[in-house]
Every structure is written in C-alpha cells, then in structure tokens.
Write a structure and sequence with these properties.
The complex is a heterodimer of chains A (74) and B (204). Chain A is an all-alpha fold. The model of chain A has no long low-confidence stretch (mean pLDDT 92). Chain A has one domain. Chain B folds into two domains: 76 residues, Rna Polymerase Sigma Factor, Chain: A (Orthogonal Bundle); 91 residues, Winged helix-like DNA-binding domain superfamily/Winged helix DNA-binding domain (Arc Repressor Mutant, subunit A, Orthogonal Bundle), CATH 1.10.10. The chains are: A mainly alpha (74), B mainly alpha (204). Chains A and B meet through helix 4 and helix 5 of A and helix 2, helix 3, helix 6, helix 7 and helix 9 of B.
Chain lengths: 74, 204
C-alpha cells in the first residue's frame, strides 16, 4: 500500500468502516510511514475534539416533562 | 427527491388493554425516550433554534409513540427515531426556518488543514483553545446536507450504513459528504483560530 491509497481510506479507517483485511494493511502502512501516521493522528484528534465539543448539550428537563405529559397523561 | 413517508399506522389501531398499554409505555420509555438527548442535539442543529428544536422533538416522540407497534423491537431505535425526526423537519420546519441549498456541493473542495499546519502547529494543539459555541457555530454554517451528515456521524456516532438509511442516500454519498463536511469544518475552525491569533496561519 502506498501513501495515496492509504490516505484515500483516511476517514473510513478512523470511523472503523473498513474490512479487517484493509484495516490491517493500513495499520501496517501507518506503522512504517511517519508522515501518514502523523496525518491520521491529526485527523483522529480532530474527530475526538468535535465529539467532545458537541456532546455536552442535552435536552432541557422541561422538554422531557412536556413530552411525558403529552404522551401519557391524556 | 422526495423521501419515503415515515412509518405510520394504516388504520387506527384497536384500543389496547391496560396491561398492553403499560407494556407499550414501558418499552417506549426504555427504547425510545433514552434517545431524547440525541434527538434534541440533532433537532437543534437542523432547525438552528431552541424553541423549534423543542417542538420538533416533541412531535417526533408523539409520532413515534403512535407508530410504536410498527417498530421492530430490539432493532435500532435511534436510527428509526432520527428518520422520523428528519422527515418531520423536511415536511414542516425547513420551509419556515432554513432554505435548501442552491450551491453546487460537489464543487466544494476544501483544502487540507493538516498540510497548512505543518510549520506552525502540526499537533493541532490550537483545537484545545476553541470553545463549544464556536464549534457549534461552525457546524451550523455548513450546507444542510453536510451538516446533517456530520452531526449524525461526529456527534451521534452513527455508522455509514445507519446514516445512509436515515438520509435515504447511498453509502458512497455519506462518505463523500462526510469527507467534505469535515474538511469544511476544519477550514472554518482553522480560519477562526488564525483570526483569534491562536496560530499564525498562512495567506491563502
């Protein structure tokens, strides 16, 4: 596997969407190729950052009460 | 492209016995209501405002409860609920809130932030200085097709297959939208970080 082929699968790899065989090939390439390794690390950091920043928000407690009232207290 | 209609009972269901009603309520609370936070987060990003997100989520839950007999227990309730939510949004809210894009989404080829950062911040430490609100604002500025794909993947953690089902598009479309959405987000956040002086940045 070369760098271009590896990078083509960047997000599929990070999202765990590849077959075990392809995933293995990419992991091997990343271990041998520092530039690709750094690139993938950076993108992983970015995805972790996105998730951490966006998941803090939850439904307001009042909305849950409103829905429960609407569903079950008729 | 018109999405398939969400699941709904073909005829009014016969009244349930009290025991069946209690069972329905219990299973709905256990399998559907646990996803309230996810539905709310997605609704907020779709509508762009809290009052409409409240209404959209409430409507979704009512529709889901009415159609609960159609839902196959033990399968992916989150995906099923998000599909209902998205249809409700398209049919009733989008007209009033945001407008579908007219831009050519395929023409968007955002640059790679990783390459820009090589001399400056290759570890991406500037991310640490960007607060929640700024990230949410960047997501809200994405074209709708990219925004919904990114939210389902990066915020709610759905698989490509699940996203494809919710959005009613091929998996390949999910991949390409996700790629562009993430690159656009990186670009927006990079520009923000340069603007704030967190990183030097290079002239483009």
């Amino acid at each position: 596997m070369n760098c271009r082929q590896c990078t083509e699968h960047l997000y599929e790899y990070l999202d765990r969407e590849l077959t075990p065989e392809l995933e293995h090939e990419i992991r091997e390439h990343l271990a041998e190729c520092p530039p690709c390794g750094e690139h993938f690390d950076f993108e992983q950091l970015f995805l972790d950052f996105l998730r951490a920043r966006c998941r803090a928000q939850g439904a307001p407690p009042e909305l849950k009460r409103r829905i429960l009232r609407e569903l079950f207290d008729e | 492209m018109s999405p398939p209609t969400p699941p709904s009972p073909p005829t009014p269901p016969p009244p349930l016995t009290p025991a069946a009603e209690a069972d329905k309520r219990e299973s709905f609370e256990r399998e559907a209501l646990v996803h309230l936070d996810s539905l709310y987060r997605v609704a907020l990003r779709l509508t762009g405002n809290a009052a409409e997100a409240d209404d959209l989520v409430q409507e979704t839950m009512l529709k889901a409860y009415r159609a609960w007999e159609q839902f196959q227990r033990g399968t992916n309730a989150k995906g099923w609920l998000l599909t209902i939510l998205r249809h409700a949004f398209i049919n009733e809210y989008r007209r009033r809130t945001r407008h579908p894009e007219t831009v050519d989404l395929d023409a968007i080829e955002p640059f790679s932030v990783f390459e820009e950062l090589q001399d400056d911040d290759p570890q991406g430490t500037f991310f640490d200085r960007i607060v929640d609100d700024e990230v949410l604002r960047a997501i809200d500025e994405l074209p709708e097709q990219f925004r919904e794909t990114a939210v389902l993947s990066d915020v709610e953690g759905l698989s490509y297959e699940e996203i494809a089902r919710v959005l009613d598009v091929p998996v390949g479309t999910v991949k390409s939208r996700l790629f562009r959405a993430r690159r656009l987000l990186q670009q927006k956040l990079y520009d923000y970080a340069v603007g704030m002086g967190y990183i030097k940045g290079t002239a483009r």
